[in-house]
């Protein structure tokens, strides 16, 4: 009898574990060009660890749906937290807080590769906390796994180097064909990425963020399944930083 009760409890627990796995289709690894983040009317501030390298910085690792869900397709809890008609990614999936000790062996690497540029006191951990709470809690990864996965992909595919190999280097005067950036990333990583642009202080179009796509296990790059209206033009700048 006892055995039956224990087995039933175990079955129930495993069902809860399975049903609490977040349903999403792929990840975006979003990396940001710091020169473009800073060269806007909002400007930027350096973190308390000093000026970041002239390199892409991680913005986040974002679970995403391949097809946006309408309100009817969302469960009740999600419907209550979203006012938008469609939801294209899950966010804030639970209330688990980021614990620094969980990622303490990654902090040096995170400081170098995932720096805050917001003018909010210079603590990069506040940026990591925001990304963990909004996106990481939906990733089916634990805290260490979430940050280590993002760092691992960034290290494997050095976007700044890939662009430099194609002659695309930071400059406040040069413009580059968007297609040449797209082709360089495809050639350098083996997969298509999505590109997002912003406008500089003088209104110029600049490459802002690169969205690489990763399978839902967080293991392999894939071709990005969704096109993106990234606010780019045929020619874009990669501003100095
Ligand atoms: P998300 O909520 O993940 O879509 O990210 C958007 C938020 O991240 C906005 O509040 C941005 O201001 C902030 N953000 C984007 N890039 C940076 C950065 N490099 N440093 C600090 N905050 C950032």
Automatic annotation (TrEMBL):
Alphabetical list of PROSITE patterns matching this protein: RNASE_T2_1, RNASE_T2_2
Catalytic site: 59, 131, 135
BP term (GO), one: RNA catabolic process
Any Pfam family the entry gives: Ribonuclease_T2
Keywords (A to Z) from UniProt: Disulfide bond, Signal
One GO cellular component term noted in the UniProt record for this chain: extracellular region
Domain of life assignment: Eukaryota
Cleaved signal peptide residues: 1-21
GO MF entries: ribonuclease T2 activity; RNA binding; RNA endonuclease activity
Entry similarity comment: Belongs to the RNase T2 family.
Protein name as catalogued: Uncharacterized protein
Source species: Triticum aestivum
Biological classification of the source: Eukaryota, Viridiplantae, Streptophyta, Embryophyta, Tracheophyta
């Amino acid at each position: 009898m006892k055995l039956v009760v224990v087995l039933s409890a175990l079955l129930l627990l495993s069902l809860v574990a399975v049903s609490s796995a977040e349903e999403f289709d792929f990840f975006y690894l979003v990396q940001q060009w710091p020169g473009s983040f800073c060269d806007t009317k909002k400007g930027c501030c350096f973190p308390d660890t000093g000026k970041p390298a002239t390199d892409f910085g991680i913005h986040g690792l974002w679970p995403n749906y391949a097809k946006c869900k309408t309100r009817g397709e969302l469960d009740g809890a999600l419907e209550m937290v979203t006012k938008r008609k469609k939801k294209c990614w899950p966010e804030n999936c639970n209330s688990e807080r980021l614990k620094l000790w969980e990622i303490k062996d990654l902090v040096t690497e995170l400081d170098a590769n995932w720096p805050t540029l917001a003018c909010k006191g210079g603590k990069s951990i506040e940026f990591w906390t925001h990304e963990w709470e909004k996106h990481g809690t939906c990733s089916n990864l634990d805290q260490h796994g979430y940050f280590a996965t993002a760092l691992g992909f960034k290290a494997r595919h050095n976007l700044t180097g890939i662009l430099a190999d194609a002659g695309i280097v930071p400059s406040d005067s040069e413009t580059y064909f968007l297609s040449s950036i797209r082709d360089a990333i495809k050639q350098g990583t083996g997969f298509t990425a999505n590109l997002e642009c912003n406008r500089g202080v003088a209104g110029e179009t600049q490459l802002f963020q690169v969205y690489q796509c990763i399978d839902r296990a967080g293991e392999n790059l894939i071709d990005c399944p969704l096109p993106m209206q990234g606010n780019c033009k045929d020619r874009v700048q990669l501003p100095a930083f």
